[in-house]
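Quick one: structure for this chain?
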Amino acid sequence: MATASEASQQANRSAMDPKRLVVIFYLIAGIILALFLERVFGMLWARFGWGDPILIEGLDWKVSTLMGYLLAVGIAVGAYFHPRTHALSLDVASELMKVTWPTWSETRTSTMAVVVASLVAAVILFFIDTIAYKLMVEWLPAVWGTL
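Got it. Here's what it folds into:
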């Protein structure tokens, strides 16, 4: 199994250009946005009772579908070519290329540590909550009732 530094060096040797990561991100984000906007426009068309005829028969693309896809493409292309957004995206991708990602065994070990710590905290809080409940609901009223 490769160490973390070896894995980082391997990633850097792969010569993946940060621009490639940025393009992949914008493509995936555009597809997700297109699917979301397709649903939103479909609900708007149904809500207002507007006619939503099918434009492309085989794909069942309606006017609302086409509007959602076109708006998503416009937003993705506009964001990609906007100078500040593009520069920020390239900076983020460049920094991600420098990250030393944990190995699978490190991830598994860390996850188990978090699960165990969470369970221990849950048990401790359960006992504190149980004692506090008994104190406030049963023990203190019993003591005050005898005064």
